[in-house]
Amino acid sequence: MLRHTAAGSKRRYERFVSPFRQIAVRIDDMTDATDARLIALLTENARAPVAQLAQRLGLARSTVQARLDRLERSGVVAGYTLRLSERARGGICATVLVQMVPARQAAVLAGLGRIAEVETVHTTSGRFDLACRLRAETTEALDAALDRIGALDGVKATEALIHLSTRIDRG
């Protein structure tokens, strides 16, 4: 277990190692490390029965259920969801790097939000301001989405990186 305090901040993080992944969980939103261990188990299998979670944590089933209820109420656990594999989702995936006029960020983000092929948008440091993940059914649909992104008011330049295969997916 590793504790880290961010420079100039009071946020504390702990890293918990599961057999499948390492995750950093913000401790400020939880009471203790047991909550973080519970979250680590849920990231491995969100459908795990409460009885199984309790056994792995060495706690009573009712205790684990109470912790889950509290984490849900407080918003730490926002929900449980299904993740499809890349193969099952199909289509063509790309990362589009966007350089924009800083004063037009709100307009660019609003425009990206209207493009159905845009799945995620992240702000970045460096030469490009945004990294967008797109998914389209065909190369033609991807090309059209790229054209719409390039035409947005405030976009100075774009660079598209087509995903060929996924080698590691922790998420």
From TrEMBL:
Recorded GO MF terms: sequence-specific DNA binding
Gene3D superfamilies: 3.30.70.920, Winged helix-like DNA-binding domain superfamily/Winged helix DNA-binding domain
Keyword match Transmembrane helix: no
Keywords attached to this entry: DNA-binding, Transcription, Transcription regulation
CDD domains to which the protein is assigned, alphabetical: HTH_ARSR (cd00090)
GO biological process entries: regulation of DNA-templated transcription; response to amino acid
SUPFAM superfamilies: Dimeric alpha+beta barrel, Winged helix' DNA-binding domain
Domain HTH asnC-type: 32-92
Designated name of the protein: Transcriptional regulator, AsnC family
